[in-house]
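TICKET: design request
STATUS: open
ATTACHED STRUCTURE:
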C-alpha cells in the first residue's frame, strides 16, 4: 500500500508539472515565420495581428508586439487606419502612407495602460501581398510621435490576418 501511495504521488507531481509547463504564452509561429518587425531598432515578435474593414470604409490594421526577450514586461500595440473602401483596392507595391494614420498607440507596462494618439511623421508603408485572409505590409522607417514627443520608428513586415468580421453595405459578413 505504501508503494502504491508513493507511485500515486509521483504520478500526480509529474502530471502537475506538465500542466504548469503548458501555461506559457506561445508565440504564433505562423506570423513569426512570415513577419519580422523592429521598433526603435529592437526586435519584436508578433503575438497577434489582424485587419478589419469597418462599416465606414476604413481598413483597420492592428498588431500586438512583445519585446523579443524572455523577461516579462510590456507589450506594444498600434492601430493604423487606412482610408480604402475595400481591400480589393489594395495593390501589391502600392504605398499607402498618404492614406494612413496611426489612430492609437498603447504601451502596456505591467498593469498600467497609457493610451496615446500619434501622428505619422515620416517613412512609408507599402503593400507586399493581398489575398482573402491576409494582407502583408512593409514598414520602412515609419516614424510617428505623440504630443509628449515620444517617437517610435517601425521597420519590417507585418502579416495581418482578417479577424473574421467585416462589413459590406453596412451589414456584418463572416468569412
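STATUS: resolved
RESOLUTION: sequence designed for all positions
ATTACHED SEQUENCE:
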Amino acid at each position: 500500500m505504501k508503494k502504491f501511495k508513493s507511485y500515486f504521488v509521483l504520478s500526480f507531481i509529474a502530471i502537475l508539472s506538465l500542466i504548469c509547463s503548458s501555461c506559457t504564452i506561445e508565440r504564433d509561429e505562423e506570423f513569426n515565420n512570415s513577419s519580422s518587425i523592429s521598433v526603435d531598432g529592437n526586435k519584436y515578435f508578433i503575438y497577434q495581428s489582424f485587419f478589419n474593414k469597418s462599416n465606414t470604409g476604413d481598413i483597420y490594421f492592428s498588431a500586438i508586439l512583445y519585446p523579443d526577450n524572455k523577461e516579462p514586461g510590456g507589450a506594444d500595440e498600434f492601430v493604423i487606419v487606412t482610408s480604402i473602401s475595400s481591400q480589393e483596392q489594395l495593390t501589391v507595391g502600392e504605398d499607402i502612407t498618404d492614406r494612413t494614420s496611426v489612430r492609437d498607440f498603447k504601451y502596456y507596462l505591467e498593469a498600467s495602460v497609457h493610451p496615446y494618439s500619434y501622428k505619422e511623421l515620416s517613412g512609408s508603408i507599402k503593400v507586399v501581398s493581398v489575398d482573402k485572409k491576409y494582407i502583408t505590409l512593409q514598414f520602412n522607417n515609419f516614424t510617428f510621435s505623440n504630443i509628449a514627443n515620444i517617437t517610435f520608428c517601425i521597420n519590417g513586415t507585418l502579416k495581418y490576418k482578417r479577424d473574421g468580421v467585416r462589413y459590406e453595405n453596412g451589414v456584418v459578413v463572416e468569412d
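CLOSING REMARK: Residues 16-34, 109-113, 166-170 have pLDDT under 50 and may be disordered. The chain has two helices and eleven strands.
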